[in-house]
Structure formats: structure tokens, C-alpha cells
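Example protein
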Amino acid sequence: MIPSRVMATQLLCIAGPTASGKSARAVTEALARGDEIISVDSRQVYRGLDIGTEKITAPEMRGIPHHLLDIREPEERYSAGDFVTDATRLIEEIVSRGKLPILVGGTHYYFDALLHGLAEGAEDPTLRAELEQYTTAELFARIREQDPRRAVELDPKNRRRLVRALELIKLHGCVPPRDAFRTSDVPGTSDVQPWTTEWIVIDPVADELRERIDARLKGALERGLIDEVRRTRERVGDARLNELGLEYRIVGEYLRGERSEASLLSALSAKLWQYARRQKAWLRKLGHSKG
């Protein structure tokens, strides 16, 4: 348990990789403090995306108010700019009630956008969440295919730049000049918002996290993940389905006959582990102590 709240602290941020137990920890902290929770998750904003996103259930909330869950239909877009607007409003409302806002989630781009400002130029966090599921080599291959002229000017190992380049390609059809990449690399280098933050970072060791990911996936399949993806696919189509995260993309491949059911668990486990490793890398960059 972290030290009791001090008057200067305005935000408690709880971050960690997928399947690390962030939601449960946030509820424990909120119960002890009597506060409210704001979800920092780019997919849990969508109604009907429950099993695939491991959205917290009403009984698990234990009466604690949760915000920014189920606020959009899956056909709609929700950007980092939308999140910053909504979260800022909610923070002000929660503070006005004499409570501490607890921000919890694994979408580090949302944390960065709220606490350090949006990157210059257009951004598409839904696309970014999709791109984060690919390896660095796969990202560079996509750039070479879509904008070979600029591909030769990019570092094939600079993952952040590659993701940003693909976002800009989608908007402009090519990668604009280098100054479009201006953004903060390190959390804490900007003071866009005047909030004092307290962090709990949940970062399990690799073996433990892999076990949690596999257990989560087995439970999701048993609870009806395939049916949830089928319903979502019928509603939004394959292109949009692929944007809603790797669970939906990979199960969608099975529904289209491109993958066997027997391969689902291993494919999901491998991709989620890759994603979790990238989340862990961002957590290390934070430089905060583990919770």
C-alpha cells in the first residue's frame, strides 16, 4: 500500500501491462480512499467489447464509480484528444466532490497525452493501438510498402518513429517532413497540465505475467470471446474489427477461415505477450517504483 494522500497530490495513476491486475488494484485503492476511477483504455470505451478487453464487471467494481467505460459504439471513433477532453472534465468534477481521481489503464498513449500533451500533428490512437500489436520489423515493412521513399530515411529500429510514420501515412498518404515528429520522448518533460501525480506501477516478472496472460485468454475463450467477436464483426465489418485490437483481429481470422480454432490460444498468447513487453518497456521509461 502506498503512503496516505497528501494535500498536494491531485491524481493517482495506476499503470501496468495487460493481465497484471490493474483494475483490481485500483478498486482496492479506491475503497481505502473513498475515491473514483477513470479508465485509461482505448478500447474499453466501446460498448459490447467486454470479454476481449477484460472490462471490469459491475460486481468487481464493488460500488466504486468508474468513468469512461461504455461511452461509444464500436462503429464510432474515440481519439486521444477526446480522452484528454473527457478526462480533464472528469478530474475537475471528481476533485470538486472532494475526492481523488484514480486513473488506471494500459493505454500509455492516453496517459502521455493527458499528462504531457498531444504530439504535434494529427494522431489516431485507435490506429496506434492496432499498430502497437506488430513487431518493429513488421512496422518497417509496412512503411517500405506504403512510402518507400521515406522508408530509407527512417531508422528501422526506432519503434516510436515507425508507429508515428504509419499514423501520418494514413492521414497524408505519405510521411510529412521530419518536424512532424516533434513530441516528448520521456514522461515528465512537459508541464502541460499543472497536476501532481502519484504512481503505482504494477510490473510482474516475465514468467508470472505470461501465466496470467494465458489464464486470462483461456477464461476469455470459455466465457464466449468467439461469439463476442462474431457479433462485433457482423456489426462493424472486418476492416473496423481489425482496428479494435489483437484479440478481435486474430479471432476474426478464425471466423474468416484463415486460422484454425486450435491455433487461437497460442496465437493470442504470443501476440499479447509481445504487446505486454512493449507496455513493460514504457513502464520502465516512467522511472517510478513498482507498486
Q: What stands out?
A: The radius of gyration is 19 Å.
